[in-house]
Design goal:
CATH class of chain A: Mainly Alpha
Helix content of chain A: over 70%
Low-confidence stretches of chain A: none
Structural class of chain A: mainly alpha
Oligomer: heterodimer
Shape of chain A: globular
Mean pLDDT of chain B: 85
Strand content of chain A: under 5%
Strand content of chain B: under 5%
Number of domains of chain A: 1
CATH topology of chain B: ABC transporter involved in vitamin B12 uptake, BtuC
Strand order of the largest sheet of chain A: 1-2
CATH architecture of chain A: Orthogonal Bundle
CATH class of chain B: Mainly Alpha
Number of strands of chain B: 2
Number of domains of chain B: 1
CATH topology of chain A: ABC transporter involved in vitamin B12 uptake, BtuC
Low-confidence stretches of chain B: none
Strand order of the largest sheet of chain B: 1-2
Order of helices and strands of chain A: HHHHHHHEHHHHEHHHHH
């Protein structure tokens, strides 16, 4: 336990000190990107990892928040009001999204979310009077909460870090809570949970809402970071990218999606400096991970670590491994 | 008046193409229980390979029909290969299979961009079908009528294959109950490869036949995949009649929607799918809920 605490403190110190040890502003911005994509991945992991529901339409919801924020700012609302309205719109959209897609699970869920994501993409692309079509929407300013202007890369990084840590804590509480346990129950044994008197559908619905909230928060950070949104943000590729973050890091683990987000953002940033063909690599990594390391990098490394130290796995992790 | 008729003909043409695309998608879905997310890519790859044959390799040009047959065969082989080498490694794990098809579709899209570039390539209409056909006072473009005829012929052929042959009976058994089919001695995993190759070939065929109307461009895969998905959700998985009726409906909605409500075309397109999901989740002619 003490080593775990120590590791957390070290990780925290490293994250806080990022603007001081990285070589330049560019890398601070990469850090911000990793953090808000990590929030997005945490949100998707609620569904993919803990509820066993794979969504291929989350980028659509992400886009709804981003467009709503941009549009509200264009209408002349202030930043706090625009963010609030955007979050409300996103939560309502997520509720509709969930009500439609939770009619089935497994492959059916994937297909419905995929279709819903495509609808939202199509709307963003075609409904030019609202979204500007391919030209997208741009945001003129970033907000300045409590007098700190977020136009500065370092300040933006710290704001993102604070929100990221809050989201991570929310996830940690959620995983340990009775609700988290119930959700994992509906993932593994929906019928038994139903027989025990749990309302499986409602539990899944609330999980969708929680996932949607994290997604929307990351989308607000994203839209202020890029100050621009176009239909590309809602494309199937974007949904798949986040899914890759979750799956590569390890679905159903607390830290996996963060590692996955860092991996994907770094590979994407580094690789796009050399080649334009990011999508090919994305697809190849996807196929390789699904076939070779289906449990993801974090659980895979933990397993190798345990094997190296010849530590007997605790019954809980053994069960988890037996399941996967 | 004439506008409506032109729109209607275009709708049926597009419906025919959609049928060629979605029949395979539907069979794969019915048999293997997975939506094959590479289906749009197969359509696009077929179109690209076909157009390469038509425009000529080392000055040797082919006509559309020969190119279509060659593209169909090569893409069918690619499909069989993908099924054998990748999907076969993940037996029973449908989620992983879907993710593999998704990854493959990205790779295919990027490879096409790398090989054929970002500019749209138009496919020349074959000379013998360049003109118009007069029916009384009405004038129809000959090529569009030809597509309708081809789609109808393929539909009848597929129907005969499924309903009147031993292979078809085996596929139908696999769609209805794969476990029982295995028990009575049908090698269902072998059917997977056959159906996957067949579906891939049909998609590629649709891609090149549709080339003169749709042109070939990067992103064609992402335009077609959702349409196949909608058709199959609407018609029901594993049902040939379902994908036929679904294709015609979506063909009409697509053309009329784009003409009448261009901004909301996508929304109108997905509306019937949502209605079907809400009130008849197995689709209009489907037998089981995906």
């Amino acid at each position: 336990m003490t080593t775990k605490l120590l590791a957390l403190i070290v990780a925290f110190a490293v994250l806080v000190a990022v603007p001081y040890w990285v070589p330049g502003i560019y890398y601070v911005n990469v850090g911000s990107q990793i953090l808000f994509y990590a929030i997005f991945a945490l949100g998707l992991n609620v569904l993919v990892g803990y509820a066993g529901l794979v969504s291929l339409g989350h980028a659509g919801l992400f886009g709804v928040t981003a467009y709503a924020t941009g549009y509200m700012l264009q209408l002349g609302f202030g930043h706090p009001m625009a963010i609030l309205i955007a979050l409300i719109i996103s939560m309502v959209s997520m509720a509709i999204f969930a009500a439609l897609s939770l009619r089935s699970t497994g492959i059916g869920f994937i297909m419905i979310t995929l279709a819903l994501g495509e609808i939202l993409w199509g709307l963003a692309y075609r409904w030019i009077s609202l979204t500007g079509g391919d030209n997208g929407l741009s945001l003129k300013t970033r907000p300045a909460p409590f007098g700190f202007s977020l136009s500065d890369a370092n300040t933006f990084y710290y704001a993102t870090l604070v929100i990221f840590l809050l989201s991570l804590m929310a996830m940690a509480v959620f995983v340990r809570s009775p609700f988290g346990a119930a959700l994992m129950g509906t993932r593994d044994q929906p019928r038994r949970m139903n027989a025990l008197g749990y309302h499986v559908w409602a539990i899944r619905f609330y999980a969708c809402m929680f996932s949607g909230l994290l997604t929307s928060i990351s989308a607000v950070l994203f839209v202020y970071y890029t100050q621009f949104i176009s239909p590309q943000t809602l494309a199937l590729t974007a949904s798949a990218e986040v899914l890759l973050m979750v799956i590569s890091g390890g679905a159903g683990t607390l830290l996996g999606p963060i590692v996955g987000a860092a991996l994907v953002v770094v590979v994407k940033t580094v690789v796009s400096g050399f080649i334009e063909r990011w999508n090919f690599l994305l697809g190849a990594i996807f196929v390789a991970i699904v076939i070779l390391m289906p449990e993801g990098l974090v659980p895979g490394t933990v397993r190798l670590w345990r094997m190296a130290w010849r530590k007997r796995p605790s019954p809980v992790t053994r069960d988890a491994e037996a399941k996967s | 008046m004439n506008l409506w008729l032109v729109l209607a003909v275009n709708s049926i043409t597009f419906g025919g193409l959609l049928f060629l695309l979605s029949a395979g998608f539907s069979l794969i879905f019915g048999l293997m229980r997975i939506p094959n997310l590479t289906h749009g890519s197969l359509f696009m790859v077929g179109a690209y390979i076909g157009v390469t044959f038509i425009l000529g390799i080392h000055g040797f040009q082919m006509n559309l029909w020969l190119a279509a047959i060659l593209a169909t065969i090569s893409v069918a082989a690619l499909g069989a290969l993908a099924e054998r080498l990748l999907l076969r490694r993940l037996p029973g794990d449908q989620l992983a299979q879907v993710l593999v098809t998704l990854g493959l579709s990205f790779m295919a899209a990027d490879l096409c961009l790398m090989i054929w570039g970002g500019d749209p390539i138009s496919v020349p209409t074959p000379h013998e079908l360049e003109g118009f056909v007069r029916l009384g006072v009405l004038v129809f473009p000959a090529y569009r009528l030809a597509i309708i005829v081809i789609a109808a012929v393929v539909a009848v052929g597929l129907w005969l294959l499924l309903e009147r042959t031993r292979l078809g009976a085996m596929i139908r058994a696999g769609v209805d109950d794969p476990d029982m089919a295995r028990v009575v001695g049908i090698r269902v995993s072998q059917l997977f490869t056959i159906v996957f190759a067949m579906g891939a070939g049909l998609a590629a065929f649709a891609g090149i036949i549709g080339g003169p109307i749709l042109t070939v461009y990067p992103g064609l895969d992402q335009d077609m995949l959702p349409l196949a998905l909608v058709v199959v959700i609407l018609g029901g998985t594993g049902s040939l009649l379902g994908s036929f009726v679904g294709s015609i409906i979506i063909g009409f909605i697509c053309n009329f929607g784009q003409a009448l409500l261009p901004e909301l075309a996508y929304f109108v397109l997905f509306l019937p799918m949502l209605l079907v999901l809400l009130f008849r989740p197995q689709g209009l002619f489907g037998r089981h809920v995906p």
